[in-house]
Design a protein that fits this description.
With 279 residues, the chain is an all-alpha fold. The chain folds into 2 domains: 56 residues; 202 residues, MetI-like (MetI-like fold, Orthogonal Bundle), CATH 1.10.3720.10. It is built from 13 helices and no strands.
């Protein structure tokens, strides 16, 4: 009986491993295809690629340098997206930290409703958010294109900061706050000198999530963008509309590389298991 049970468990374990492997292959296959396509020697997107070449990486360098025969504005688009991402990360961190701290420290009527309001952007389709913001800004003529994008991206990124900082507040040592106030520190002084350093991992994680989300955000950017200056997602979109060539695969690989670097940096800077209550 024991042998039969063990054999069943072993067989089930093998099936589970095969299933997990197949799911992993399914999820990673698009990235693998994009990676191979970026090295194609063909003038069009096709898989499998015809030959191996670095020509499209060279063309990306030409686009960055603004050489003749290339679509202008790539370097400027990257700079604009980086500027928007930095501003969004700062605003989202300031708002998100205060919201998470208020939700953690205080009990008040409608607390759960208040929490859910700040988490709604995670549940609402970005298409709905983009259309809603477009109608509001168009009706009242509020702000320029840069400010519109910042506000739209902040709405999308605040939930990430609230969640990561809230997770840090659940595991930080509140006794240190009490000790600081017992030694004569005021509430504001305690918040800046004791609380913020204790929850810095959640703040760093939230800021990184906010920046990456803003830098790569397309849907809301599509509805709020206007003017000659293009964020990176809009520059890429225009390439897609005009011609589908392997340059898109190269840009996609670089964005994936950016995400991997961010994840590695996040794992080095932040103890993820401790952040979310692990041991």
């Amino acid at each position: 009986m024991r042998k039969s049970r063990r054999s069943r468990l072993d067989f089930g374990g093998v099936l589970l491993r095969i299933y997990v492997a197949l799911v992993g292959v399914f999820l990673l296959s698009p990235i693998f295809i994009i990676f191979l396509t970026s090295f194609t020697a063909s003038e069009s997107v096709e898989f499998p690629p015809r030959g191996v070449s670095l020509m499209w990486y060279e063309r990306l360098v030409d686009h960055l340098a603004g050489r003749s025969g290339t679509k202008p504005g790539l370097s400027n688009s990257i700079l604009v997206s980086a500027q928007i991402g930095l501003v969004v990360a700062i605003i989202a961190v300031v708002v998100g930290v205060l919201v998470a701290y208020a939700l953690h420290k205080y009990v008040f009527p409608g607390k759960e409703v208040f929490r859910n309001v700040f988490l709604l952007p995670l549940m609402f389709p970005q298409l709905v958010i983009g259309v809603g913001l477009l109608l509001v800004f168009s009706e009242y003529r509020w702000f320029g294109f840069f400010e519109r994008l910042v506000l739209g991206h902040v709405i999308l990124t605040i939930p990430f900061v609230v969640l990561t900082v809230g997770a840090s507040l659940e595991v930080y040592e509140e006794q240190l706050e009490e000790a600081a106030m017992g030694l004569g520190a005021g509430p504001v002084q305690t918040f800046f000198l004791v609380t913020l350093p204790l929850i810095r991992q959640g703040i760093i994680a939230g800021a990184i999530f906010a920046f990456v989300t803003s830098f790569t955000q397309f849907t809301v950017t599509f509805f709020l963008y206007s003017g000659a200056t293009k964020p990176l997602p809009m520059w890429v979109y225009e390439i897609v509309v005009m011609s589908l060539d392997p340059l898109l695969a190269v840009i996609s690989i670089l964005l994936i590389a950016l995400t991997v670097v961010v994840v590695v940096a996040l794992s080095k800077l932040v103890d993820v298991r401790r952040l979310f209550g692990g041991r």
